[in-house]
Amino acid sequence: MSLNRLNRRTFLQSTALGAAVIAAPSVLRAQGAPVKVGILHPVSGALSYSGQQGRLGAQMAVDAINAAGGIKALGGAKIEAILGDAQSTPEGGNAEVEKMNSAGVSAIVGGYASSICLSASQTAARYDLPYVVDVGVVDSIVTRGLKNTFRFGPGFGVIAKTALDNLVAINEAAGKPAKTVMIVHEDSAFGAGLAKLLNAQLPERGFQILETIAHPTPTRDFNNVALKIKAQNPDIVIPANYYNEYVLLARTMQQQRIRPKGIYSVLGGAASSYKFVKEFPDAAEYIMDCNHWFDPKNPKAQELKKQVEAKGQFYTYEVYMNYSCVLLLADAIERAASTDRAKIIGALESSTFSGHVMPYGPTKFVNGQNQGAAPVNTQVLKKDIEVILPAAFASAKAVFPMPRA
Amino acid sequence: MKGVGTILVVAALLAAVPLFGVSNVTLNFLVTALIIALAGQGWNVLGGYGGQYSFGHAAFFGTGAYVSAILQLRYGVNAWIAFAAGIGAGALAGAIIGGLSFRSGLRGSYFALVTLAFAEVLRILASVTPITGAGVGLLVKLDLRPEAFQFQSRVPFYWIILALVTVSLLIVRAIENSRFGAYLVAVRENEEAAKALGVNVIAVKLGAMVISAAIVAAAGGFYVQYFLFIDAGIAYGPWISIEALLAPIIGGVGTVFGPLLGALVVKVLGEAAKLVTGDAPGLDLMIYGGVLVLVIALAPRGIAGVVADLRARIVRRKPEAKPEQPTAGHHV
Fold first, then answer.
1. Interface touch A193/B228, C-beta < 8 Å
2. Which domain holds residue B118?
3. Which of A311, A352, B86, B154 qualifies as a cystine partner to B67, CB 3.0-4.6 A?
4. Is B141–A144 a contact, with Cβ atoms under 8 angstroms apart?
5. Structural domains in chain A (count)
6. Shared-domain flag, residues A234 and A89
7. Which region, left, alpha or beta, applies to residue A333 given φ > 0 means left and ψ of -120 to 50 means alpha?
């Protein structure tokens, strides 16, 4: 079912781009038996936008690999994507893993949400099926001792630490103008967890927390929160929430003319999203974020950005993380020279893959976690998103405190 | 006892399914459907027979799930004992919520809203309390040993959930045939009249609530063992409250086989919609919703009701007694 559709879609896209010549072999599949890879995302339900972006990234990687001649160690075998919809629930993810296993996939990439990754990778472990987590930041994903599970991106602990280090660095570079902080977070997994971490660590690093405000997802009105911020007048506002709430909070603050010295988010739902910057450029300007981001100095990453934008899509982190994860897996299959699951797990364990588009350096897995994985700090500057830290990948200098309009 | 034979035959037929070498995909599908059937049967005791439409049976599903998971994770309790304790805790939650709302005389939509509120409060509490893993949820460690209530193969899981469903069918059949069941139906049909005839209305409703909650809690506890992961949204989220009432409503409210039929049909429908629509995200859910609306519009008494009508038409005479016909629909 998925196979035919994928090929038809691949074919249509390729022709439209005038690249039919390159892509045609992936349709014809003249070579040896294709390597089946499960591509699992929540493409319907609450997380559907992120899931669809993730699927897009994974499919683009599959197309790119096939266009470049497939898996050479297997006689140029093509990668055949078996698409799965986790329907934004762990059971949905679980059911898809069962289907993919029955379809004979060699490995699975994706999951997106932490809860889906936890459940899907565990089910895959029953079949010794290699599972590459695309995003899922909860650290328990890689601390369960599952041999089949690999996370290419960073986990929560690393992200929170980097965010705090960088906040201190940015503040010190500007002559320590910021002393007080207010946290506005959503009340589920990541928001509440992050607020707890920040509450514990910010005082140690010389910041005073004026207030921590929790709100549910979804929230449709931030006027009261904005009024509280106005009354407390903190130097820095730290939002930790999903896309819609983030946008609404930023816009409400803009409307009520609340200008703290900085808005600094961690895994901000919108702060490093081209969608937000394009749709609400004034509200987004100068917002800083610590988040997943591509390596801006990598030409491959820029090329992918052009391709994604040519499709009329936004270049979001789900796209390039999934793109990188599929490349990472293809490299492992190439080195394993086999579709055997155990051999692929072995190849992933010893991976030193560096052909991805993330600022992680060569891959090195320890207990399934990629050691080089780290977030970067971005800032919205002149209606574009620039990397401001770490210096090695920076494309601009941080503007802090934000200028008074 | 009347009507036990049918239940055992159905159970035996279903139990034979894995012997035909069906794939894990099918087994996984059946297990998920049976979890819903079990939760639906729990809801059916109170909603179908007692006429008390609850919108918050997630409260018991979640309690069963969390108690089982927490005992295993934090106190090292054996998974089977934890599972039993989860059922007990669910029954207790039923007694508390039922006691509070029935003593306050809440009926109909008010009862529905209060149960919904209880489930939501529990969801919010579970998403902030450390013992429930707050927003991150709880992860039961993978330990594929029968002693740990985990199995390498899907088949034992399937048989266990089938056994649980069979027990729930037998319980409901026993209720139907008992004096308690007669009181319960009397309360459903006319609470004032039942009271006037000397039925202890609160005790009867409370009894139904406790049985109902215990069955739903068993579904929650099984869910944990099967998926090994639970968070506030899964445990206490509205999805399970809705599935638990949808299955009996589709299958036939206040009938023994209604929830099982309903759960299977709803799940098959969902899968079929997915197959038809292929990769178009979300389209299957729209088709699913549309068909659901049609089913409810065309068969307000559920599939069991349609079957009963057909049988009556074939036999060309009305069944002598119709204890399985609900009239509590006006609450929703």
1. no
2. 4-331
3. B86
4. yes
5. 2
6. no
7. alpha
Measured distance CA(A304)–CA(A61) in Å, rounded? 10
Residues whose CB falls within 8 Å of the CB of residue B279, separated by 6 or more in sequence, listed in order? A2, A5, A6, A83, A85
Query: A192 to chain B: which residues are within 8 Å by CB?
Result: 127-128, 134-135
| Ordered DSSP codes for B194-245 | HHHTT--HHHHHHHHHHHHHHHHHHHHHHHHHHH-EE-HHHHHSHHHHHHHH
Enclosing domain of residue A22: 2-153+296-370
What six digits make up the tokens of A115? 């809860």
Letter for the amino acid at B262? G
- Whether residue A85 lies within 8 A of chain B, CB to CB, comes out as yes
Count of the separate structural domains present in chain B: 1
Look at A48 and B228 and tell me if their CB atoms are within 8 Å.
Answer: no
Determine if the pTM surpasses 0.80: yes
How many A×B Cβ pairs under 8 Å?
90
Q: Is it the case that residue B325 has pLDDT exceeding 60?
A: no
Do the Cβ atoms of B44 and B181 come closer than 8 Å?
Answer: no
Position A403 in a domain: no
B284–chain A Cβ distance below 8 A for any pair: yes
DSSP output for A356-375 = SSSTT-S--EETTEETT---
State whether residue A3 sits within 8 Å of chain B by CB: no
**Residue B319 pLDDT greater than 80, yes or no:** no
Residue A202: CATH number of its domain = 3.40.50.2300
Confidence class of residue B41 from pLDDT cuts 50, 70 and 90? very high
Q: What is the ipTM of this complex?
A: 0.79
CA-nearest residue to B230 within chain A is: A115
- Interface membership of A7 toward B (CB under 8 Å): no
